[in-house]
Amino acid sequence: MTTQPLVEPLPSQAAAEDDYFATNPQPAALQQHLSLARAFVARHAVEGRKVALVTSGGTTVPLENQTVRYIDNFSAGTRGATSAEYFLEAGYAVIFLHRQFSLLPYSRHYSHNTRSFLDFMREDESGRVVVDQEHQNEMQAVLRQYTEAKKQNTLLILTFVSITDYLWELREVAKVMQPLGPRALFYLAAAVSDFFVPRHRMVEHKIQSAEEFNQGLRYDQIPHAHRPAARVEGRSLVIDLEPVPKFLKQLVDGWAPQAMIVSFKLETDPSMLVNKAKYALGRYAHHLVIGNLLTTRKWEVVFVSPDGVKWVRVPRGKRTKSVSGIESLIGQASGEIDELDSATHRFVGEPAVEIESLIIPSIAEMHEKLMANAESGKQ
Ligand code: PMT
């Protein structure tokens, strides 16, 4: 006698992927982005250059099809924009896939929210707008790097807004990068939503703030499965989010099987960071997970790779300032106590070091080894 299983088996990852892309439409700009990416990759492949795809910024979760309201996260894109500059400095061509209006390489130096770019300028005696003397050297250096990247055509900037845009772009650009083989590198610094509203459960128009404007619809009288995911019931906005399938496995095994893949793991609880990063490495079997804590991410990260666990820290006295960061928490996730009070040990005039200037050369070194292994495996 055959018995029916009580619970439907979980769809495989591949089926979840097919379903996601079949039911959540591609972004309008995708084809245009892909032709830019194809030309960019072809050019750098011919020149034998390594190409890094850097993802950056947060993904939105729209609640309506004609989107007025959405869920977002904290990411400003500092990690991605800063890292892109150091990848360029290390000789990579960079595809910078970022959340629209988040920070961009080079211009990020003058577009952060504590200081407007106008603060760096003044009018001279003749009324011409010039850069203030005290910022000349720094701005000249940034401008030169930016101009060089433009001249060499080593930086391609692509945008996304929603989680669905991001996943479409990531999958399709990864496929475009396949001919690069092991010379491709993925650096997944974007803060990707884990939950979303699927298209078939999204309302078309702006959610009304009061139930009386729902054209007589009483959602509490409709079966749960047929209610929109985001709706007003009584006086409350109710949102049922569904899990976004994890796409890292598909990236590693299917979309970019020869590339080096670096993912990030963000936590807020220091006691979880290393274990969660190890778990991600075990589960997705890629090359490197970079763990970081929300409060200390500008000064310390942990590299978790098949070679083990390695902490990367900006030395005390060379740490960049941060409004939201908590410097005293450095060392907590590794069980070390940062016994010196940083404020009293900051050396006046010592230039600040961005942690990405330590992260990227380390990754580039790992990437060289992987490429050499791939090359020797071929012989
Ligand atoms: O932009 P900043 O303000 O400078 O902040 C930088 C940062 C903290 C956002 C960055 O350093 C960082 O940690 N980014 C990754 C945050 C994140 O998405 O972590 P996660 O634990 O949710 O995901 C881990 C990995 O799984 C990510 O590489 C992500 O690409 C991947 N993922 C996530 C969700 C999903 N549905 N599928 C995935 O494959």
From TrEMBL:
SUPFAM superfamilies: CoaB-like. Transmembrane segments: none annotated. Signal peptide: none annotated. The lineage of its organism: Eukaryota, Fungi, Dikarya, Ascomycota, Pezizomycotina. It comes from the Eukaryota. It comes from Trichodelitschia bisporula. GO terms for molecular function: catalytic activity. InterPro entries: CoaB-like_sf. This is DFP-domain-containing protein. GO terms for biological process: coenzyme A biosynthetic process.
